[in-house]
Amino acid sequence: MREIAVKNAEVADKVRELVNNRKPGYSLDAPFYASQEVFDIDMKEIFGKHWIYVGVSPDVPEAGDYMTVKIGEQPILIVRGEDNEIRAFHNVCRHRGARVCSGAKGSTGNLVCPYHQWTYNTQGNLLFAEHMGEGFNPQHHSLKPVHLKNVAGMLFICLAENPPADFDDLVATMTPYIAPHQVENTKVAAQIDIIEEGNWKLTMENNRECYHCTGNHPELTISLFAYSYGFAPSEGTDPGAEAYDKMIAQRHAEWEAMGLPSKEVERLDCAISGFRTQRMPLDKAGQAQTMTTESACKKLLADFTDSALGGLSFWTQPNSWHHFMADHIVTFCVLPISPGKTLVRTKWLVNKDAVEGVDYTVENLTHVWKQTNDQDRLLVEESQRGVVSDAYEPGPYSPYTETLVEKFSAWYVGRLKANLG
């Protein structure tokens, strides 16, 4: 045990040195992307202590519906109870540790461990355990709970005993932004999981900038204004930029008057539970992130009557980003698998009453982000191949187009520094 403790202390010292030597405004040192030791600390200090986005309430639409997710080596079960409350538990039977539910999703009256049929209700209480003898108290063997917050239909869990309390600030700020889209009244029309052969931080860094978009995302940029991404101001007055800023102000005023909060809130590197949001206009028809920029679903969300409500973006540290439009929602969840392997899970939500083949097609709904995700996967994988090279050294971020990448890196390094001491 002493040898293990000494080794753990040595690893922590190495990571502290990396953290302390990190140069602001530059990409991270190679071990942050490639080291198993750093990855293990990431899983403990980042994914084990912060609020992690895992899914949406429509993943478990009815009482008894459940979904499973894995955070590192921690199997988690999320279930909607008979009281309609959504709860999270460690997906570990209190008998001998088998997973209670092995499928990705399902529906059940009670949760029955397949090994010895220990049976729990959807509140996690042990109801039945045969052959346990006198003196056995089922109340002492309930499923172990995991903290869960439902943010207007967006589900976050925290594995820590004492989760970051400032997440309540995120909930208070984001609920008015998300609630008009009525996530609870949607359904998951499609889900695509891809495995990127790269470190999870490269996935997140890639998402936090659109410097790369012009040359790599022809489908996505159809619906984006050129001034909304990859834009470096030139010297003097730029009439195009001024007109774009004026349009933003006008659209924000219109949307705010409709009860749709739109202004930017940016707390990516100044909060433990870092996040950012803003509603931005879309180009051309301005309705959705599709090849035509028109709605992908004829039946709009909630009680919307206007199809051109732009796109509400919502980013969270450390593992998610989301786009809310009038007709559909796209959510993204990033889950690390190993130092060089990351799961990216994308879900498309539409009105729960929309009919596939009548109101929408999955191909049209998913096309833009399916292509974009695959393009990003290649970029992340090329970056991973480079950062493990002896030639790699941290390079400077653009002060115009990569400021939010710096905020992600600063948040990450800051959280390691705080957690490691």
Automatic annotation (TrEMBL):
GO terms for molecular function: dioxygenase activity. Signal peptide: none annotated. Residues 51-157 form the Rieske domain. Its cofactor is Fe cation. It holds the Pfam family Rieske. It comes from the Bacteria. The keyword Glycosyltransferase does not apply. Keywords: 2Fe-2S, Dioxygenase, Iron, Iron-sulfur, Metal-binding, Oxidoreductase. Belongs to the bacterial ring-hydroxylating dioxygenase alpha subunit family. This is Aromatic ring-hydroxylating dioxygenase subunit alpha. It comes from Leeia speluncae.
